Amino acid sequence: MKTRRISESQVVTIVLMALAVILLVVGTVGGSRAALTYSETYSTELSMQDIGVVFNENDNPVENGGVLLKDLLGTDEAFKIGKEYEEVLTVKNTGSIDQYVRVTLYKYWQDDDGKRVDLSPAYIKLALGTDNWIVDPAASTAERTVLYYKLPLKQNDETSAVLTAVSVDNEVLKLVEQSKKTEGAYTTVTNTYKYDSVTLGLKAEVDVVQAHNGEDAILSAWGATVSIADDGTLSLG
């Protein structure tokens, strides 16, 4: 009985994939004011022999246990609804092979009991990068935005910004429930803001696959159909 050996050339097409949950940002929103606070943050630098990525935040590597958005607000500065706050996220290839990059951004509201599915994430505004990033509308929802970097990311190279700023839409201030209470000759009117006492949440995930045989690698790893031109440029469908 002969034993069949697998050569090195037969295994190079194995898809390598890495997933990192990187970012969690929370802030308190209420009435005509909002103050950001920060909860536990997450970052993971992944490597699997030849493959790996890491998020950079405002030109600083996001390390395990690092504090995110620590310079977003000045001393005693209150978060302002409607104002854009700079938050630049990029992805760096820390592996040794070219990779295609997919980033998923999640935005949502939460309170002490957890995620609030009754509140619209559409009021959380993300300023997305446009330089070589494309949004996958078929995979995106009001809460989730999926983006692909169009070019293969070479070793030690960094993407353009996938996110540049975060803000809360002024429209949340119009979502008010009014109640009246009359005692004698006086009537007390109370305004309750629907988005008072909740926090906004933002989470980002990055996935990568090897650039070699990229179309097959992406289909196998992510179940997405893409087209890759001769120069390596990725397009959806």
What would your notes on this structure say?
- The protein is mainly beta and 237 residues long.
- The protein has one domain.
- It is built from 1 helix and 17 strands.
- The strands form 4 sheets. Strands 1, 2, 7, 8, 10, 11 and 15 form a 7-stranded antiparallel sheet that branches. Strands 3, 4, 5, 6, 9 and 12 form a 6-stranded antiparallel sheet that branches. It has a two-stranded antiparallel ribbon with strand order 13-14.
- Strand 7 and strand 8 form a beta hairpin.
- The N terminus is likely disordered.
Report strand %: over 45%
Q: How many individual β-strands?
A: 17
Structural class: mainly beta
Counting copies of identical and different chains, the oligomeric state is single chain
How many structural domains in the coordinates? 1
Major sheet characteristics:
7 strands, antiparallel
Query: What order do the SSEs take from the amino end to the carboxyl end, as H and E?
Result: EEEEEEEEEEEEEEEHEE
Radius of gyration, whole Å: 22 Å
**Count of helix runs:** 1
Low-confidence stretches: 1-48, 63-67
The separation of the N and C termini measures: 46 Å
Helical content stands at under 10%
Mean pLDDT figure? 77
- 3D shape: elongated
